[in-house]
TrEMBL record:
Record membrane topology: Multi-pass membrane protein
InterPro entries: Membrane_assoc_protease (IPR052165), NA-bd_OB-fold (IPR012340), NfeD-like_C (IPR002810)
This protein's record includes keyword Membrane: yes
Signal peptide region: none
Regions crossing the membrane: 48-70
Source organism of the structure: Streptomyces silvensis
Entry keyword annotation includes Transmembrane helix: yes
Domain called NfeD-like C-terminal: residue spans: 84-141
Protein name per UniProt: NfeD-like C-terminal domain-containing protein
Length: 142
């Protein structure tokens, strides 16, 4: 019993899928897609040289195109920030004078203790300030 070339390519694609799952390296998946393309070429009657060329071209093209896109997405900050990080950059209203000794602001519907970034600055009640940092339970404002 002779096994067709396309079956061998599919076995190769499945074999490449195992390290993809075990290591989470997307390059193995791209090589597996190249093997599937070579299996299709073999199933359509392409010779061995054409099968290898299709495998190489599809695999290299996927790695060259998809890998930089994936790397760019991996390095971007998540769009959804929560907790203390979500408060940085928000505006607040001064409730009690904020100076080097402290004060109170209304931030995101809650009352926070606050201090100015520059200890020589002070903000009066009713002024709008921006939160630059959260230090424990104190908002640092400008």
């Amino acid at each position: 019993m002779d096994i067709d070339a396309w079956v061998w390519w599919l076995i190769g694609a499945a074999a490449l899928g195992i390290p993809l799952v075990m290591t989470a390296m997307p390059e193995f998946g791209m090589l597996a897609v190249g093997a599937v393309a070579a299996a299709v070429t073999a199933g359509l009657g392409g010779d061995v040289v054409l099968q290898v060329v299709v495998f190489a071209v599809v695999s290299v093209a996927l790695i060259a195109v998809v890998r930089p896109i994936a790397a760019r997405h991996r390095s971007q900050r998540p769009e959804l920030v929560s907790g203390v990080e979500a408060l940085k950059g928000r505006s607040a209203v001064v409730l009690e004078r904020v100076d080097a000794n402290g004060g109170r602001i209304k931030l995101a519907g809650e009352i926070w203790s606050a201090r100015p970034l520059d200890n020589e600055q002070s903000y009066e009640a009713g002024q709008e300030v921006d939160v630059v940092e959260i230090d424990g339970a104190t908002a640092v404002v400008i």
